[in-house]
Amino acid sequence: MGVHSGDSISVYPTFNIQFIVDKEENVFIIEVNPRSSRTVPFLSKATGYPLADIATKVILGKDLKKQGITEIYPKEKERRYVKVPAFSFAKLNGVDAYLSPEMKSTGEAVGYDKKLHRAMYKAMIASGVHYEDGVVIRSAATQNNITMLTSLDTVKVLHEAVDDQAAKINFHGYMPECGDPFLRETIAKYYGNRGVSLSSEEVFISSGASDELGDILDLFDRSCSALVIEPAYPAYVDANVMTGRKIVHLASGEENGFLPEPSEETKADLLYICSPNNPTGAVFSRSQLQAWVDFANENGSVILFDAAYEAFIEDETLPHSIFELDGAKTCAVEICSLSKTAGFTGTRLGYTVIPKALKRNGMNLNEMWVRNRTTKTNGVSYIIQKGGAAVFTEKGQKQIHENIQVYKKNAKVLMEALDQLGIWYCGGKNAPYIWIKCPNGMGSWEFFDYLLHEIQVVGTPGEGFGACGEGYFRFSTFGSPEDTEEAAACLIKCFLD
Known about the structure:
Elements: E1 10-12, E2 16-21, E3 27-33, H1 40-47, H2 51-59, E4 80-86, E5 107-113, H3 116-126, H4 152-165, H5 181-192, E6 203-206, H6 209-215, E7 226-230, H7 234-242, E8 247-251, E9 270-274, H8 286-299, E10 302-306, E11 332-337, H9 339-342, E12 350-353, E13 359-360, E14 363-364, H10 365-376, H11 382-391, H12 394-421, E15 425-427, E16 433-437, H13 444-454, E17 460-461, E18 472-476, H14 481-496
Parallel strand pairs: 7-8, 7-9, 9-10, 10-11
Antiparallel strand pairs: 1-4, 2-3, 4-5, 6-12, 11-12, 13-14, 15-16, 16-18, 17-18
């Protein structure tokens, strides 16, 4: 059985190599040559030569010399280029994804860099193959970014909801645009258990925090400025760049535990705060967060509070919600997610809280968001919302916290390794992310290269989260315990030796 060359990973500069692998995994080279067939588009991108255009002109009688091409081989570039195929069946669960002499790929992604392994990494990510942060790479086939599955009780309810849709008597069509009333009430009670009083009409069901972080900007004029505390989740910046807003970048660092205070220089219409923070894992204390709430009310700003990781907080003195602070209901919107909390990465469900007391320029943001949702959406599906409601039951909460404890143990393993090595870090205890200072003065990409090459461990270079992330690195605890333990052992062996 062979595999079509169009379904292969291609590297430039190199030769076309055809080979056979037998049942005993012996490799036999059939042919090595400098030609290309299905890789012509890739080579055109890599070399800068429009090969199809050149060939067409030759067919029409214009030889290479007349086209100004006199070299047999173009001068090799310093960069390395890697082409990785993309497959449509990768989007479908349960489909037999075997490869054969018949070409199966329906697209491709190209990565380039001065270093081959980094070009390969970029191409893999661009094609939809995702690696776990902080774990040993075992297979490029993994596409999950979370290890534990949705709780068993939630899965059972999801199945029941599917069955409901198969029976006329239980069938649900379009759901209420702002969310199922039962789920909205359930989430309001969840807040009530933490001493936060909300009405169900202040809770809006969404398809996830990432979607909502972009959609919520509909409420604000494009002339509004946005402050982003960096290092930051890149979507905060990108969503505002797309709408042409002025962005105020507030750098944080070790000196303030990556938890900066507000100041006159940080004034903006929109204030992004993520706590627990992605990527640093830092969590604002009550007094620190209260300072931002007071600052927002004094200046007429609106805080967009990303609470996607609140379920990871174990320190009872730390706030899970911004609405635990005095005055927050007149200055804040809170955006939450069940992706990491309850394994909803593949099913997508979140919720947003907009208090009725939040007003700006005589307009009520809660009422405006009702109008936005009833205009632009048909609501989250019945199946997903019914599954979401199961998360907030006593049994569901018990199961998801059991899952979270797996990530907590992973964090402990990594933190113990970092402590042994004397490497500075923050996060981990109340967040699923650990933010480390790259050892030996390495840059963040330099450290990425070093880990990948020396011990095959992956994480995220800090520079990807803003300029002040340079020299830092993010480890995620969303890996299997076995891989995390091996990664930690490799770190210790690598840096102690």
